[in-house]
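Researcher: Let's do a round of design. I'm pasting the C-alpha coordinates now; please hold your answer until I've finished.
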Protein backbone atom coordinates (compact mmCIF):
# COMPACT_ATOMS: atom_id res chain seq x y z
CA UNK A 1 0.00 0.00 0.00
CA UNK A 2 2.96 2.32 0.64
CA UNK A 3 4.06 1.97 -3.02
CA UNK A 4 0.62 2.96 -4.22
CA UNK A 5 0.60 6.08 -2.01
CA UNK A 6 3.96 7.17 -3.41
CA UNK A 7 2.68 7.08 -7.00
CA UNK A 8 1.78 10.45 -8.59
CA UNK A 9 -1.93 11.19 -8.45
CA UNK A 10 -2.20 11.39 -12.25
CA UNK A 11 -0.80 7.89 -12.83
CA UNK A 12 -3.31 5.03 -12.86
CA UNK A 13 -2.39 1.61 -11.61
CA UNK A 14 -4.38 -1.08 -13.37
CA UNK A 15 -4.82 -4.26 -11.29
CA UNK A 16 -4.00 -7.61 -12.81
CA UNK A 17 -7.52 -8.84 -12.26
CA UNK A 18 -8.93 -6.25 -14.68
CA UNK A 19 -6.32 -6.77 -17.38
CA UNK A 20 -6.82 -10.50 -17.56
CA UNK A 21 -10.57 -10.40 -17.09
CA UNK A 22 -12.64 -12.04 -19.82
CA UNK A 23 -15.23 -9.34 -19.21
CA UNK A 24 -13.18 -7.04 -21.38
CA UNK A 25 -13.93 -9.28 -24.35
CA UNK A 26 -17.66 -9.75 -23.69
CA UNK A 27 -20.14 -7.44 -25.37
CA UNK A 28 -23.67 -6.80 -24.04
CA UNK A 29 -25.91 -9.62 -25.27
CA UNK A 30 -29.58 -10.44 -24.96
CA UNK A 31 -28.97 -14.00 -23.85
CA UNK A 32 -29.63 -14.04 -20.10
CA UNK A 33 -27.25 -16.83 -19.20
CA UNK A 34 -24.33 -15.28 -21.05
CA UNK A 35 -25.16 -11.86 -19.58
CA UNK A 36 -25.16 -13.22 -16.05
CA UNK A 37 -21.83 -14.94 -16.75
CA UNK A 38 -20.40 -11.62 -17.85
CA UNK A 39 -21.78 -9.83 -14.78
CA UNK A 40 -20.24 -12.45 -12.50
CA UNK A 41 -16.81 -11.99 -14.04
CA UNK A 42 -17.21 -8.21 -13.89
CA UNK A 43 -17.99 -8.42 -10.17
CA UNK A 44 -14.71 -10.24 -9.63
CA UNK A 45 -12.89 -7.52 -11.50
CA UNK A 46 -14.61 -4.77 -9.51
CA UNK A 47 -13.64 -6.41 -6.22
CA UNK A 48 -10.06 -6.48 -7.45
CA UNK A 49 -10.34 -2.78 -8.40
CA UNK A 50 -11.40 -1.86 -4.84
CA UNK A 51 -7.98 -2.90 -3.58
CA UNK A 52 -6.32 -0.15 -5.60
CA UNK A 53 -6.29 3.32 -3.91
CA UNK A 54 -5.53 4.90 -7.28
CA UNK A 55 -8.76 3.57 -8.75
CA UNK A 56 -10.67 4.63 -5.63
CA UNK A 57 -9.56 8.23 -6.06
CA UNK A 58 -10.41 8.37 -9.76
CA UNK A 59 -12.81 6.31 -11.79
CA UNK A 60 -11.09 3.86 -14.15
CA UNK A 61 -12.09 4.61 -17.71
CA UNK A 62 -11.16 2.28 -20.57
CA UNK A 63 -9.38 4.94 -22.59
CA UNK A 64 -7.60 6.64 -19.68
CA UNK A 65 -4.66 4.23 -19.47
CA UNK A 66 -4.14 1.88 -22.41
CA UNK A 67 -2.47 -1.41 -21.60
CA UNK A 68 1.04 -1.67 -23.05
CA UNK A 69 1.07 -4.05 -26.04
CA UNK A 70 2.71 -7.42 -25.86
CA UNK A 71 6.11 -7.41 -27.53
CA UNK A 72 7.78 -10.29 -29.30
CA UNK A 73 11.26 -11.51 -28.63
CA UNK A 74 13.62 -9.96 -31.20
CA UNK A 75 16.87 -11.63 -30.18
CA UNK A 76 19.32 -12.17 -33.03
CA UNK A 77 20.84 -15.58 -33.69
CA UNK A 78 24.36 -14.25 -33.07
CA UNK A 79 23.34 -12.95 -29.65
CA UNK A 80 22.63 -16.50 -28.49
CA UNK A 81 26.11 -17.78 -29.33
CA UNK A 82 28.94 -18.04 -26.86
CA UNK A 83 32.11 -16.09 -27.56
CA UNK A 84 34.19 -19.11 -28.69
CA UNK A 85 31.55 -20.27 -31.16
CA UNK A 86 31.14 -16.79 -32.58
CA UNK A 87 34.87 -16.40 -33.16
CA UNK A 88 35.05 -19.70 -35.05
CA UNK A 89 32.54 -18.56 -37.72
CA UNK A 90 33.18 -16.15 -40.56
CA UNK A 91 31.15 -12.96 -40.88
CA UNK A 92 29.47 -14.33 -44.03
CA UNK A 93 28.47 -17.56 -42.27
CA UNK A 94 27.05 -15.64 -39.31
CA UNK A 95 24.89 -13.58 -41.68
CA UNK A 96 23.76 -16.77 -43.44
CA UNK A 97 22.74 -18.34 -40.15
CA UNK A 98 20.99 -15.11 -39.15
CA UNK A 99 18.89 -15.28 -42.33
CA UNK A 100 18.00 -18.94 -41.72
CA UNK A 101 17.09 -18.17 -38.11
CA UNK A 102 14.92 -15.25 -39.28
CA UNK A 103 12.96 -17.65 -41.50
CA UNK A 104 12.56 -20.13 -38.65
CA UNK A 105 11.50 -17.44 -36.20
CA UNK A 106 9.03 -16.04 -38.73
CA UNK A 107 7.37 -19.44 -39.07
CA UNK A 108 6.99 -19.67 -35.31
CA UNK A 109 5.44 -16.19 -35.13
CA UNK A 110 3.05 -17.04 -37.97
CA UNK A 111 1.87 -20.21 -36.21
CA UNK A 112 1.25 -18.22 -33.02
CA UNK A 113 -0.77 -15.60 -34.90
CA UNK A 114 -2.90 -18.18 -36.71
CA UNK A 115 -3.72 -19.86 -33.38
CA UNK A 116 -4.43 -16.48 -31.79
CA UNK A 117 -6.86 -15.51 -34.57
CA UNK A 118 -8.86 -18.65 -33.80
CA UNK A 119 -8.66 -18.48 -30.01
CA UNK A 120 -9.13 -14.74 -29.40
CA UNK A 121 -11.44 -13.79 -32.28
CA UNK A 122 -13.19 -16.66 -34.04
CA UNK A 123 -14.18 -18.83 -31.08
CA UNK A 124 -15.40 -16.04 -28.75
CA UNK A 125 -17.51 -14.41 -31.48
CA UNK A 126 -19.06 -17.78 -32.28
CA UNK A 127 -19.82 -18.63 -28.64
CA UNK A 128 -21.27 -15.20 -27.91
CA UNK A 129 -23.31 -15.25 -31.16
CA UNK A 130 -21.73 -11.99 -32.28
CA UNK A 131 -21.46 -13.47 -35.79
CA UNK A 132 -22.98 -16.57 -37.32
CA UNK A 133 -20.87 -19.61 -38.12
CA UNK A 134 -21.40 -19.02 -41.83
CA UNK A 135 -20.16 -15.43 -41.60
CA UNK A 136 -17.11 -16.44 -39.57
CA UNK A 137 -16.27 -19.20 -42.05
CA UNK A 138 -16.50 -16.68 -44.88
CA UNK A 139 -14.18 -14.24 -43.08
CA UNK A 140 -11.65 -16.66 -41.56
CA UNK A 141 -11.63 -19.26 -44.35
CA UNK A 142 -9.53 -22.39 -43.74
CA UNK A 143 -7.08 -20.58 -41.49
CA UNK A 144 -6.71 -23.58 -39.17
CA UNK A 145 -5.63 -25.88 -41.98
CA UNK A 146 -2.46 -23.85 -42.58
CA UNK A 147 -1.11 -24.30 -39.06
CA UNK A 148 0.13 -27.90 -39.68
CA UNK A 149 1.66 -26.74 -42.96
CA UNK A 150 3.96 -24.26 -41.23
CA UNK A 151 4.54 -26.55 -38.26
CA UNK A 152 6.00 -29.09 -40.70
CA UNK A 153 8.54 -26.57 -42.00
CA UNK A 154 9.42 -25.49 -38.48
CA UNK A 155 9.94 -29.13 -37.43
CA UNK A 156 12.14 -29.81 -40.48
CA UNK A 157 14.28 -26.77 -39.71
CA UNK A 158 14.57 -27.93 -36.10
CA UNK A 159 15.76 -31.37 -37.19
CA UNK A 160 18.36 -29.80 -39.50
CA UNK A 161 19.74 -27.60 -36.71
CA UNK A 162 22.94 -28.90 -35.17
CA UNK A 163 23.65 -28.83 -31.41
CA UNK A 164 25.72 -25.68 -31.91
CA UNK A 165 22.67 -23.91 -33.45
CA UNK A 166 23.85 -23.87 -37.08
CA UNK A 167 22.06 -25.29 -40.14
CA UNK A 168 24.27 -26.84 -42.80
CA UNK A 169 21.77 -27.24 -45.66
CA UNK A 170 18.34 -25.67 -45.94
CA UNK A 171 17.84 -25.93 -49.72
CA UNK A 172 16.49 -29.52 -49.89
CA UNK A 173 13.97 -28.77 -47.11
CA UNK A 174 12.63 -25.71 -48.96
CA UNK A 175 12.46 -27.38 -52.39
CA UNK A 176 10.32 -30.11 -50.88
CA UNK A 177 8.09 -27.82 -48.80
CA UNK A 178 7.48 -24.69 -50.91
CA UNK A 179 5.12 -26.33 -53.49
CA UNK A 180 2.69 -26.97 -50.62
CA UNK A 181 2.02 -23.22 -50.47
CA UNK A 182 -0.33 -23.66 -53.43
CA UNK A 183 -2.86 -24.41 -50.67
CA UNK A 184 -3.17 -20.64 -50.14
CA UNK A 185 -4.86 -20.10 -53.52
CA UNK A 186 -8.36 -20.38 -52.08
CA UNK A 187 -7.62 -18.26 -49.02
CA UNK A 188 -6.02 -15.40 -50.94
CA UNK A 189 -8.74 -15.48 -53.60
CA UNK A 190 -11.39 -15.02 -50.92
CA UNK A 191 -9.69 -12.10 -49.16
CA UNK A 192 -11.50 -9.33 -51.04
CA UNK A 193 -14.95 -10.74 -50.27
CA UNK A 194 -13.89 -11.53 -46.68
CA UNK A 195 -12.70 -7.96 -46.11
CA UNK A 196 -15.94 -6.55 -47.54
CA UNK A 197 -18.03 -8.74 -45.22
CA UNK A 198 -15.91 -7.82 -42.19
CA UNK A 199 -16.26 -4.10 -42.96
CA UNK A 200 -20.01 -4.56 -43.30
CA UNK A 201 -20.25 -6.43 -39.98
CA UNK A 202 -18.29 -3.67 -38.24
CA UNK A 203 -21.39 -1.52 -38.58
CA UNK A 204 -22.93 -3.80 -35.95
CA UNK A 205 -22.34 -2.20 -32.55
CA UNK A 206 -21.63 -5.51 -30.81
CA UNK A 207 -19.01 -6.50 -33.39
CA UNK A 208 -17.44 -3.07 -33.23
CA UNK A 209 -17.32 -3.15 -29.42
CA UNK A 210 -15.81 -6.65 -29.33
CA UNK A 211 -13.08 -5.79 -31.86
CA UNK A 212 -12.28 -2.56 -30.03
CA UNK A 213 -11.83 -4.42 -26.74
CA UNK A 214 -9.53 -6.90 -28.45
CA UNK A 215 -7.53 -4.06 -29.98
CA UNK A 216 -6.98 -2.55 -26.54
CA UNK A 217 -5.88 -5.87 -25.04
CA UNK A 218 -2.15 -6.69 -24.79
CA UNK A 219 -2.34 -9.84 -26.93
CA UNK A 220 -3.34 -7.86 -30.06
CA UNK A 221 -0.04 -5.90 -30.19
CA UNK A 222 -2.23 -3.00 -31.38
CA UNK A 223 -3.17 -4.96 -34.51
CA UNK A 224 -6.79 -5.17 -35.64
CA UNK A 225 -8.48 -8.38 -36.74
CA UNK A 226 -7.80 -7.86 -40.43
CA UNK A 227 -4.08 -7.49 -39.74
CA UNK A 228 -4.11 -11.03 -38.30
CA UNK A 229 -6.14 -12.35 -41.23
CA UNK A 230 -3.74 -10.73 -43.71
CA UNK A 231 -0.59 -12.09 -42.04
CA UNK A 232 -0.48 -15.28 -44.21
CA UNK A 233 -0.53 -13.20 -47.42
CA UNK A 234 2.18 -10.85 -46.16
CA UNK A 235 4.23 -13.90 -45.14
CA UNK A 236 3.97 -15.39 -48.63
CA UNK A 237 5.51 -12.35 -50.31
CA UNK A 238 8.42 -12.40 -47.84
CA UNK A 239 9.61 -15.88 -48.82
CA UNK A 240 11.45 -14.78 -52.01
CA UNK A 241 13.22 -12.03 -50.04
CA UNK A 242 14.23 -14.43 -47.28
CA UNK A 243 15.54 -17.00 -49.75
CA UNK A 244 17.50 -14.39 -51.68
CA UNK A 245 19.03 -13.16 -48.43
CA UNK A 246 20.13 -16.70 -47.52
CA UNK A 247 21.51 -17.20 -51.04
CA UNK A 248 23.40 -13.89 -50.89
CA UNK A 249 25.35 -15.02 -47.84
CA UNK A 250 25.93 -18.59 -49.05
CA UNK A 251 29.47 -19.32 -50.35
CA UNK A 252 29.70 -20.12 -54.07
CA UNK A 253 31.12 -23.57 -53.41
CA UNK A 254 28.34 -24.46 -50.93
CA UNK A 255 26.02 -27.34 -51.97
CA UNK A 256 22.99 -25.12 -51.24
CA UNK A 257 23.73 -22.67 -54.06
CA UNK A 258 21.92 -24.41 -56.93
CA UNK A 259 19.18 -25.79 -54.69
CA UNK A 260 18.40 -22.33 -53.29
CA UNK A 261 18.16 -20.94 -56.81
CA UNK A 262 15.68 -23.72 -57.60
CA UNK A 263 13.75 -22.89 -54.41
CA UNK A 264 13.52 -19.22 -55.43
CA UNK A 265 12.18 -20.26 -58.83
CA UNK A 266 9.57 -22.49 -57.14
CA UNK A 267 8.29 -19.80 -54.76
CA UNK A 268 8.08 -17.26 -57.58
CA UNK A 269 5.99 -19.73 -59.58
CA UNK A 270 3.74 -20.37 -56.59
CA UNK A 271 3.20 -16.65 -56.02
CA UNK A 272 2.50 -16.12 -59.71
CA UNK A 273 -0.20 -18.82 -59.65
CA UNK A 274 -1.73 -17.39 -56.46
CA UNK A 275 -1.73 -13.87 -57.91
CA UNK A 276 -3.38 -15.11 -61.09
CA UNK A 277 -6.11 -16.89 -59.15
CA UNK A 278 -6.54 -13.93 -56.81
CA UNK A 279 -6.79 -11.57 -59.79
CA UNK A 280 -9.51 -13.67 -61.42
CA UNK A 281 -11.45 -13.77 -58.16
CA UNK A 282 -11.12 -10.01 -57.67
CA UNK A 283 -12.22 -9.40 -61.24
CA UNK A 284 -15.33 -11.56 -60.87
CA UNK A 285 -16.14 -9.94 -57.50
CA UNK A 286 -16.45 -6.50 -59.11
CA UNK A 287 -18.19 -7.79 -62.23
CA UNK A 288 -20.92 -9.25 -60.02
CA UNK A 289 -21.43 -5.83 -58.40
CA UNK A 290 -22.00 -3.93 -61.65
CA UNK A 291 -25.49 -2.54 -62.33
CA UNK A 292 -26.61 -1.52 -65.81
CA UNK A 293 -29.09 1.27 -66.54
CA UNK A 294 -29.38 0.28 -70.18
CA UNK A 295 -29.04 -3.06 -71.94
CA UNK A 296 -26.78 -1.34 -74.50
CA UNK A 297 -24.18 -0.86 -71.76
CA UNK A 298 -23.69 -4.60 -71.38
CA UNK A 299 -20.66 -5.89 -73.24
CA UNK A 300 -19.50 -9.53 -73.45
CA UNK A 301 -15.95 -8.29 -72.88
CA UNK A 302 -16.94 -7.32 -69.33
CA UNK A 303 -18.37 -10.71 -68.38
CA UNK A 304 -15.46 -12.46 -70.09
CA UNK A 305 -12.76 -10.49 -68.23
CA UNK A 306 -10.25 -12.50 -66.23
CA UNK A 307 -7.96 -9.66 -65.14
CA UNK A 308 -8.53 -6.26 -63.57
CA UNK A 309 -5.58 -4.07 -64.56
CA UNK A 310 -6.49 -1.03 -62.49
CA UNK A 311 -9.43 0.32 -60.52
CA UNK A 312 -10.12 3.19 -58.16
CA UNK A 313 -11.90 6.47 -57.51
CA UNK A 314 -11.60 9.40 -59.91
CA UNK A 315 -13.55 12.64 -60.40
CA UNK A 316 -15.18 13.82 -63.60
CA UNK A 317 -15.30 17.39 -64.93
CA UNK A 318 -18.26 18.25 -62.72
CA UNK A 319 -16.44 17.09 -59.61
CA UNK A 320 -18.62 13.99 -59.20
CA UNK A 321 -16.92 10.87 -57.86
CA UNK A 322 -16.69 7.93 -60.23
CA UNK A 323 -15.28 4.47 -59.65
CA UNK A 324 -13.40 3.35 -62.74
CA UNK A 325 -12.48 -0.21 -63.73
CA UNK A 326 -9.88 -0.98 -66.38
CA UNK A 327 -10.46 -4.62 -67.27
CA UNK A 328 -8.16 -6.41 -69.69
CA UNK A 329 -10.34 -5.57 -72.70
CA UNK A 330 -12.62 -2.71 -71.66
CA UNK A 331 -12.78 0.48 -69.56
CA UNK A 332 -15.89 0.86 -67.40
CA UNK A 333 -16.86 4.03 -65.54
CA UNK A 334 -19.35 3.63 -62.68
CA UNK A 335 -21.02 5.50 -59.85
CA UNK A 336 -20.75 3.90 -56.39
CA UNK A 337 -24.16 3.15 -54.87
CA UNK A 338 -25.39 1.29 -51.79
CA UNK A 339 -28.00 -1.46 -52.05
CA UNK A 340 -29.28 -3.00 -48.80
CA UNK A 341 -26.08 -1.95 -47.00
CA UNK A 342 -23.99 -3.53 -49.76
CA UNK A 343 -21.70 -1.68 -52.15
CA UNK A 344 -22.63 -1.75 -55.83
CA UNK A 345 -21.42 0.08 -58.95
CA UNK A 346 -23.84 1.66 -61.41
CA UNK A 347 -22.37 1.74 -64.93
CA UNK A 348 -22.02 5.35 -66.16
CA UNK A 349 -22.26 6.05 -69.89
CA UNK A 350 -21.03 3.57 -72.45
CA UNK A 351 -18.04 1.32 -71.57
CA UNK A 352 -15.05 1.89 -73.90
CA UNK A 353 -13.34 -1.19 -75.38
CA UNK A 354 -9.56 -1.01 -75.04
CA UNK A 355 -9.03 -1.38 -78.79
CA UNK A 356 -11.19 1.74 -79.34
CA UNK A 357 -9.70 3.72 -76.43
CA UNK A 358 -7.68 6.90 -76.88
CA UNK A 359 -5.77 8.54 -74.03
CA UNK A 360 -4.56 12.10 -73.58
CA UNK A 361 -2.21 12.96 -70.70
CA UNK A 362 -3.25 16.54 -69.90
CA UNK A 363 -0.98 19.06 -68.19
CA UNK A 364 -2.05 20.86 -65.02
CA UNK A 365 -4.25 23.80 -66.05
CA UNK A 366 -5.10 22.50 -69.53
CA UNK A 367 -8.74 22.13 -68.53
CA UNK A 368 -10.84 23.81 -65.88
CA UNK A 369 -13.19 21.43 -64.11
CA UNK A 370 -16.12 23.16 -65.75
CA UNK A 371 -15.04 23.06 -69.38
CA UNK A 372 -12.89 26.18 -69.90
CA UNK A 373 -9.63 26.01 -71.77
CA UNK A 374 -6.30 27.25 -70.41
CA UNK A 375 -6.04 31.01 -70.19
CA UNK A 376 -9.72 31.64 -69.43
CA UNK A 377 -9.30 31.39 -65.68
CA UNK A 378 -6.88 32.18 -62.84
CA UNK A 379 -4.23 29.95 -61.35
CA UNK A 380 -6.53 29.00 -58.47
CA UNK A 381 -8.98 27.40 -60.91
CA UNK A 382 -6.46 25.17 -62.68
CA UNK A 383 -7.25 21.49 -62.48
CA UNK A 384 -4.37 19.20 -61.55
CA UNK A 385 -3.65 15.52 -62.13
CA UNK A 386 -6.04 15.19 -65.06
CA UNK A 387 -6.20 12.99 -68.14
CA UNK A 388 -8.79 12.28 -70.80
CA UNK A 389 -10.13 9.09 -72.35
CA UNK A 390 -12.46 8.73 -75.33
CA UNK A 391 -13.54 6.56 -78.22
CA UNK A 392 -11.46 6.57 -81.40
CA UNK A 393 -14.68 6.86 -83.37
CA UNK A 394 -16.35 10.21 -82.56
CA UNK A 395 -19.84 8.89 -83.30
CA UNK A 396 -20.59 7.74 -79.72
CA UNK A 397 -19.86 11.34 -78.65
CA UNK A 398 -18.27 10.33 -75.36
CA UNK A 399 -15.14 11.85 -73.88
CA UNK A 400 -14.28 11.68 -70.19
CA UNK A 401 -11.94 14.16 -68.49
CA UNK A 402 -10.87 12.51 -65.23
CA UNK A 403 -9.00 13.79 -62.20
CA UNK A 404 -6.90 11.68 -59.81
CA UNK A 405 -6.24 12.51 -56.15
CA UNK A 406 -2.53 13.12 -56.71
CA UNK A 407 0.20 12.89 -59.33
CA UNK A 408 1.17 9.38 -58.23
CA UNK A 409 -2.31 7.94 -58.82
CA UNK A 410 -2.62 9.82 -62.09
CA UNK A 411 0.63 8.29 -63.33
CA UNK A 412 -0.57 4.85 -62.27
CA UNK A 413 -3.71 5.24 -64.34
CA UNK A 414 -1.87 6.63 -67.35
CA UNK A 415 0.68 3.80 -67.25
CA UNK A 416 -2.00 1.12 -66.91
CA UNK A 417 -4.07 2.51 -69.79
CA UNK A 418 -1.01 2.84 -72.02
CA UNK A 419 -0.06 -0.76 -71.28
CA UNK A 420 -3.59 -1.93 -72.11
CA UNK A 421 -3.80 -0.06 -75.43
CA UNK A 422 -0.21 -0.79 -76.50
CA UNK A 423 -1.18 -3.74 -78.75
CA UNK A 424 -3.67 -1.48 -80.59
CA UNK A 425 -1.53 1.67 -80.67
CA UNK A 426 -0.64 1.46 -84.37
CA UNK A 427 -4.26 1.14 -85.39
CA UNK A 428 -5.28 3.88 -82.97
CA UNK A 429 -2.54 6.25 -84.17
CA UNK A 430 -3.51 5.72 -87.81
CA UNK A 431 -7.16 6.38 -87.08
CA UNK A 432 -6.26 9.43 -85.01
CA UNK A 433 -4.10 10.99 -87.73
CA UNK A 434 -6.93 10.46 -90.18
CA UNK A 435 -9.30 12.39 -87.92
CA UNK A 436 -6.90 15.27 -87.11
CA UNK A 437 -8.24 17.74 -89.71
CA UNK A 438 -11.74 17.21 -88.29
CA UNK A 439 -10.94 18.07 -84.68
CA UNK A 440 -12.80 21.40 -84.79
CA UNK A 441 -15.25 23.21 -87.00
CA UNK A 442 -13.04 26.33 -87.00
CA UNK A 443 -10.10 24.46 -88.52
CA UNK A 444 -12.23 23.31 -91.42
CA UNK A 445 -13.59 26.79 -92.08
CA UNK A 446 -10.13 28.39 -92.13
CA UNK A 447 -8.42 25.64 -94.12
CA UNK A 448 -9.68 25.56 -97.71
CA UNK A 449 -7.89 22.24 -98.30
CA UNK A 450 -10.35 20.48 -96.01
CA UNK A 451 -13.73 19.93 -97.70
CA UNK A 452 -16.90 20.65 -95.71
CA UNK A 453 -18.47 17.43 -96.96
CA UNK A 454 -16.94 15.50 -94.05
CA UNK A 455 -18.60 17.78 -91.52
CA UNK A 456 -21.97 17.32 -93.26
CA UNK A 457 -21.57 13.53 -93.23
CA UNK A 458 -20.77 13.56 -89.55
CA UNK A 459 -23.78 15.78 -88.83
CA UNK A 460 -26.19 13.49 -90.68
CA UNK A 461 -24.69 10.38 -89.02
CA UNK A 462 -25.11 11.74 -85.51
CA UNK A 463 -28.73 12.84 -86.20
CA UNK A 464 -29.60 13.77 -82.60
CA UNK A 465 -26.46 15.82 -81.88
CA UNK A 466 -26.36 19.52 -82.70
CA UNK A 467 -23.59 21.14 -84.72
CA UNK A 468 -22.21 22.89 -81.66
CA UNK A 469 -22.19 19.64 -79.67
CA UNK A 470 -20.07 18.00 -82.34
CA UNK A 471 -17.77 21.00 -82.54
CA UNK A 472 -17.14 21.04 -78.78
CA UNK A 473 -16.81 17.27 -78.58
CA UNK A 474 -14.20 17.24 -81.31
CA UNK A 475 -12.33 20.19 -79.79
CA UNK A 476 -12.27 18.69 -76.30
CA UNK A 477 -11.38 15.12 -77.25
CA UNK A 478 -7.75 14.20 -76.59
CA UNK A 479 -5.18 12.08 -78.33
CA UNK A 480 -1.98 10.14 -77.66
CA UNK A 481 0.00 12.57 -79.78
CA UNK A 482 3.06 14.28 -78.36
CA UNK A 483 3.07 17.93 -77.34
CA UNK A 484 4.47 19.18 -80.67
CA UNK A 485 1.63 17.57 -82.63
CA UNK A 486 -0.87 18.94 -80.12
CA UNK A 487 0.51 22.45 -80.65
CA UNK A 488 0.11 21.98 -84.39
CA UNK A 489 -3.55 21.16 -83.94
CA UNK A 490 -4.12 24.29 -81.84
CA UNK A 491 -2.70 26.53 -84.60
CA UNK A 492 -5.73 25.70 -86.78
CA UNK A 493 -8.09 27.49 -84.41
CA UNK A 494 -9.59 30.87 -85.29
CA UNK A 495 -8.58 34.04 -83.43
CA UNK A 496 -10.02 34.32 -79.96
CA UNK A 497 -12.26 37.29 -80.82
CA UNK A 498 -13.94 35.48 -83.69
CA UNK A 499 -14.36 32.35 -81.55
CA UNK A 500 -15.94 34.33 -78.71
CA UNK A 501 -18.46 35.92 -81.09
CA UNK A 502 -19.39 32.47 -82.44
CA UNK A 503 -19.80 31.14 -78.92
CA UNK A 504 -21.97 34.09 -77.97
CA UNK A 505 -24.23 33.53 -80.98
CA UNK A 506 -24.63 29.84 -80.25
CA UNK A 507 -24.64 30.03 -76.43
CA UNK A 508 -28.31 29.09 -76.33
CA UNK A 509 -27.62 25.91 -78.27
CA UNK A 510 -24.44 24.91 -76.48
CA UNK A 511 -24.61 21.61 -74.66
CA UNK A 512 -21.78 19.94 -72.71
CA UNK A 513 -21.08 16.55 -74.20
CA UNK A 514 -18.10 15.67 -72.04
CA UNK A 515 -18.09 14.14 -68.57
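Researcher: That's everything. Go ahead.
Model: Designed sequence:
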Amino acid sequence: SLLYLQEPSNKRVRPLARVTSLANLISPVRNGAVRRFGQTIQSFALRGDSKSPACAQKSCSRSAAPTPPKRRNSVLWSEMLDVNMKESLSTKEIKRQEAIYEMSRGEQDLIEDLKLARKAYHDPMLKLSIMSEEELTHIFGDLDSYIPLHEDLLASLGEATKPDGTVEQIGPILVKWLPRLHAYKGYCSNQLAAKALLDQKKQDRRVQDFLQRCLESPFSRKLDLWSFLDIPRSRLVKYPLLLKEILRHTPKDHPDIQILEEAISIIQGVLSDINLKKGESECQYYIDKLEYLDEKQKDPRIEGSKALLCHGELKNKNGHKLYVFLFQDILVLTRPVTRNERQAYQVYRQPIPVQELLLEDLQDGDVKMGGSFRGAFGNSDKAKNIFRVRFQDPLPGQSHTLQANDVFHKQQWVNCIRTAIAPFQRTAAAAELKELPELSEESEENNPSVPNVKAQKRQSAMSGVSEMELDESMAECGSILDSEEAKGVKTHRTPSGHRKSREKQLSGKRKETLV
